[in-house]
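Why do we care about 3D structure at all? Because function follows from shape, and shape follows, mostly, from sequence. That is the central idea of this module. The next example makes it concrete: a single protein chain, its amino acid sequence, and then its structure expressed as tokens.
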Amino acid sequence: MANRLVTVAALAVGGYFLSKQLKKSRGASSMSSASGMSSSVTESIDVNVPVSTAYNQFTQFEQFPQFMDSVHEIKQLSDTRLHWRADVAGKVKEWDAEITEQIPDKRIAWRSTSGVPNAGVATFHKISETTSRVTLQMDYDPQTFVEQAGDALGLVRAQLKSNLQRFKELIETRGTETGAWRGSVAQH
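And the structure:
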């Protein structure tokens, strides 16, 4: 047990210093630095449903806990405002977010307006009539030592990849979306 604790502590410290080093090496010209966020992850997955089905399901924000492991609840307050409650580095946190752009079957972009600093975009690409690619990019700012260590160790990327795999399983098993919002939000 003591060996395990020493290993975890060593990984956390190493991850923290690696995170600091990565931030230094990015420089002020990087896209994430310009946005105020310090980390970014991007993952894609191909799903065996038409692009409109994948997009429609992704507009059902309140159902994200079905495939996003760390998300407890999302309340849709309006067409463009959401309230999130999720685990961040093992602690339950809450924040509000706004949809900053939404183009049916193409993209959904968002940013937090309070709480946990984050932003991102989900894009939807037609591969064939029955296959689409969902790409999710998230920018975030690890606040605590544990968040920085987890970021440096690639835990956010691993969780994003796992969430996309569960999204694939959900939508392919159902074969159809549980709902849809086909409205547009002009970029702002």
